Amino acid sequence: MNLILHITQRTQWETAQRSQVYRGDTLESEGFIHCSTPQQVINVANTRFWNQQGLVLLCIDSDKVQAEIRYEGIQQDELFPHIYGSLNLDAVFQVLNFQPNQDGTFAFPQEIISFMS
């Protein structure tokens, strides 16, 4: 299993569960960004979501994603997985609460470490 991680608002995830369709709308481009390493998660969380409440971290099995996945560089030649099209919900195998620390920054959830190997 290749793990992809995605940060989103809990309300967006709940809407996706009701409609059975999730399509990230946080980027203006086609495709939406995900992370594949702990450092990417923390960098994205602290840059784009600093001090935001009500977030969840979706753990996605890339082998089950039906839409096209492209690994593309968006900063400093680092590759991030982008999913082009809707995310099929059965590819999401775990949803974790993802809340900031008291100073507004995020730490990587330890529950995911076992899936990283």
From TrEMBL:
Pfam families: DUF952 (PF06108). This is Glutathione S-transferase. InterPro entries: DUF952.
